[in-house]
Design goal:
alpha/beta; two-stranded antiparallel sheet; protein transport
């Protein structure tokens, strides 16, 4: 499952069919989705001369009619409202709107009613609503998500937002891969049951036509399990450098921030440890 390739293909399709100078406008989540698979130099090759956040665009009134705006944002109510205000007083010559997941009909009507000057050229759904760390793994970068795995959740609305985000991310992954999975879940976990049932409802009822891909000999399996019933994994040592660095220091969008490590002496020790391990691995092979 080439997740990185799927996201890159979406970005290529967004940018290569729009000629001329462009500004790429992202939100706080899609900026990670794009930056982890696409470099700044590659964006320049696609004639993207400016990358902005949707919040900063809302705060500025500077006219840039010579640029074509390419939006890639999540279809949240907040983003749709920001777009509505920006379309009411357009700063760019053209607007190309791409959303990372499913748009609601009401959101489409809001955007259509806001485009009084007819600057919107297209509205599309490109299902890259996840951060593809490598070809086989993805994350949704959900902070403190472990809180919703506790037996007694004191924030029901927060639990629903968490479940909705997980379902959206899972749906985007399988739409990007053009597969509809068989869904199984851990019966003893209420959280796993909720996520599995809402995902099944989306794929097999609400958007069954969208997920009606050509059948293969073996359908993929989506297994939703509860990490509370996995006591062994936290006790194991990681086997790869990437996983080890993530466990000991932390990876964010495949980047390591050493500013919290402390003095340069500690960083030097870390580098020494890394090189010593590389030499040790080379000797073993």
């Amino acid at each position: 499952m080439a997740l990185v390739t799927s996201v890159r293909d979406y970005i290529n399709r967004m940018l290569q069919d729009i000629s001329g100078m462009k500004v790429l406008i992202l939100d706080s989540e899609t900026v990670s989705n794009v930056s982890i698979v696409y470099s700044q130099s590659e964006l320049l090759q696609k004639e993207v001369f400016l990358v902005e956040m949707i919040d900063s665009i809302s705060a500025s009134n500077e006219s840039m009619s010579h640029l074509k705006a390419v939006y890639f944002v999540r279809p949240t109510s907040e983003n749709v409202q920001k777009l509505r205000h920006q379309l009411a007083n357009p700063r760019f010559g053209e607007y190309h709107l791409f959303f990372s997941n499913l748009l609601k009909d009401t959101q489409i009507h809001i955007l259509a009613d806001s485009d009084e000057q007819e600057v919107v050229q297209q509205v599309q759904e490109f299902y890259a609503d996840f951060v593809a760390g490598d070809p086989y793994h993805f994350t949704l970068n959900m902070a403190a998500n472990h809180l919703y795995m506790l037996p007694a959740v004191v924030d029901p609305s927060g639990l629903q937002r968490y479940s909705d985000r997980v379902v959206d991310g899972i749906a985007a992954v399988f739409l990007a891969l053009k597969r509809r999975p068989v869904i199984r879940y851990q019966r003893t976990s209420d959280t796993a049951k909720r996520i599995a049932q809402e995902t099944a409802k989306l794929m097999y009822q609400q958007e069954s036509g969208l997920f009606d891909f050509r059948r293969t000999e073996s359908s993929p399996l989506l297994l939703v399990i509860d990490r509370r019933d996995d006591p062994v994994t936290p006790l194991l040592n990681q086997w790869t450098y990437q996983a080890m660095v993530h466990e000991l220091i932390g990876l964010q969008d495949n980047k390591v921030d050493l500013r919290a490590i402390g003095s340069l002496q500690k960083i030097s020790k870390l580098r020494w440890f890394y090189h010593q391990n590389r030499m040790h691995s080379s000797n073993r092979t």
